Amino acid sequence: CGVQDYARDQGRITDASRSSAQSACPGLKAKTEGAVQAQAPASLLMNAEVFQMRRRSIGVVITALLMAAGLLVAAPNPASATAASLGATTYTANADNIAGWDWVRSAGQNAVWTFDLAGLSGARSRSAYLNISGLVTNGVNGGSGYSAMSVKFNATCESGSQLLIAKLVNPFRPTDPVNSGGIGYAAYGASSSSVNLPKFAGCTTLTVTAAYPFTSGRHIAFKKDALTIGFSK
């Protein structure tokens, strides 16, 4: 009953001969099964290590791909558009000036900005929009949280004109009609359509005017930097 001989020859005998040998040598079955079982965990461990190595390799590849994608998104393309903003060269207002803001709130009042069109040279087609940041309320000594719908801005030059419409959104809440002392007046918006630059070709300046009345009787306050032209190069 040589355990070593049996273990050496185990790979060359059939199940029937193995059973006979184990019957003839009762101690052989336990010893050989123990030897086989001792080898099994080592084989499983090796397979598990190979599996883990493959998983790590796949993980490294996926991470590298994600990082590359992230870099492509984060890194600006030199050939892509670049946002820019053009401020007015001059500004006048026929309005009620209160704390540096010109309140356009009665008939005949307006605010007027003039822009140097040379500042829009290189602007991409249909990329120029009016951007507005003003104050809006519901009346004299008005309340908070009011927006202004369909505010008209008339853009003109020597050879053309364009009417641009903007909604000034006031995000403040609550909307309260009682005098807020200026709290909750700030409102923001942009023209719903782009400035038609080809229409103003040949002009050196562009004049933009906002005049009373406004929808729902809103009172709107402006100043020089309340209106800019945003565009892409």
Intertermini distance: 92 Å
- The oligomeric state is single chain
Mean pLDDT, nearest integer? 81
The SS-based structural class is alpha+beta
- Biggest β-sheet description: 7 strands, antiparallel
Q: C-alpha Rg, in Å? A: 40 Å
Given the structure, what is the number of helices?
Answer: 3
Gross morphology: flat
Report the helical percentage: 25-40%
Description:
- With 233 residues, the chain is α+β, with helices and mostly antiparallel strands.
- 28% of the residues lie in helices and 31% in strands.
- Strands 1, 3, 4, 6, 9, 11 and 12 form a seven-stranded antiparallel β-sheet that branches. A five-stranded antiparallel β-sheet has the order 2-5-10-7-8, with no helix packed on it.
What would you say about this model in short?
With 233 residues, the chain is an alpha+beta fold. It has helices at residues 3-9, 15-24, 26-74, and strands at 83-87, 90-94, 96-98, 101-104, 110-116, 129-137, 148-156, 161-168, 186-190, 205-211, 219-222, 227-232. Helix 2 (15-24) crosses helix 3 (26-74).
